[in-house]
Amino acid sequence: MTCADVAKNLQDFASGDLPAAQSGELDSHLALCPSCATDVKGYVRIIRLARQLSPPALPPALLRRLLRTARGRAPRAGPPAEHRDTSG
Amino acid sequence: MLGNDIDAEDVTQDVFVQVMRRLDTFRGESQLTTWLHRVTVNAVLLHRRKAARRRERQPGAPFDRLLEEGAKGLPARPRPAPPDRQLLVQEAQELIERAIAGLPPVYRDVYVLADVEGLPNAEVAALLGLRLPATKSRLHRARLLMRAALAPHFQEMDAP
Q1: Predicted TM-score of the model (pTM)
Q2: Any chain A CB within 8 A of the CB of B141?
Q3: Residues with Cβ < 8 Å from A17, sequence gap 6 or more?
Q4: What pLDDT is attached to residue A2?
Q5: What tens digit of pLDDT does each residue of A4-48 get?
Q6: Where are the alpha helices (DSSP H) in B23-159?
Q7: pLDDT tens, B104-132?
Q8: CB-based contact, B89 to chain A, within 8 Å
Q9: Does A87 touch chain B (CB under 8 A)?
Q10: Which residues of A touch B87 (CB under 8 A)?
Q11: Considering CB atoms only, which of B9, B17, B118 is closest to A51?
Q12: Which 16-75 residues of chain A touch chain B by CB within 8 A?
């Protein structure tokens, strides 16, 4: 396997979709090629780092906006029909 | 996906309103999260199209440009880490978020949905209206761009 082959198969290798035989060849190449080893390590690392990102917290001001919106759209809570004053 | 907090908050508000308005149209044929992702991605794409049209109408509007470019340069807001994910130090988190914000939108969309949100490629393709090979190709390109952007910082990230 050449360096170009490594680059071509990088995505499938990282996702585990590369057939075992090719994956083994790629591993053998990495053991002998520090440049490809660095590239592959960096690629795999990028995938892992993305999964370690924390989801965004809702900023308090936005939360207040959303609550105002929710209250504005909610059906008005009133007394049950039998308790409503219909005299006026 | 939008690359800045101001637009993200606007779209969050839009999505919230849409979800409240359209929740009764959710038929339960897909997972609620899939439906929410679809509503959100559609809102993001619509927001981006509107912003592009605004820019076309006012190509030189300095305030818009300042808002857009200025916001992009801002560090991301500190965010609490969920318990199931290994904590990234704040600096690393900001570096990564800045790198994501710097990706061209066509790559950023795929990267965020696939790698950050962890959606399967087929689902990302369906959400963005792309074919699967195009989705994989964009994801690969996005990762290469991210690797290039972050490679100089990898050692810093290793520091405790």
Answers
A1: 0.68
A2: no
A3: A11
A4: 94
A5: 999 999 999 999 999 999 999 999 999 999 999 999 999 999 999
A6: 32-57, 62-73, 90-101, 105-111, 121-128, 132-150, 154-158
A7: 999 999 999 999 988 899 999 998 999 99
A8: no
A9: no
A10: 52, 54
A11: B118
A12: 39, 42-43, 45-47, 49-59, 62, 65-66, 69-70, 73
Residues 6+ apart with CB under 8 A from A69: B13, B16, B17, B20
Q: What is the pLDDT of residues B32-91, one digit of tens each?
A: 777 787 878 888 888 777 777 777 766 555 445 444 554 444 444 445 555 545 556 778
Cβ distance A54 to B82 less than 8 Å, yes or no, reads yes
Tokens of A45: 């690392």
Q: Do A53 and B13 touch (CB under 8 A)?
A: no
Amino acid sitting at position A71? R
B97 interfacial to chain A (CB closer than 8 Å): yes
Distance from CA of B96 to the nearest CA of A (A): 8
The span from the CA of B3 to the CA of A85, in Å, is: 54
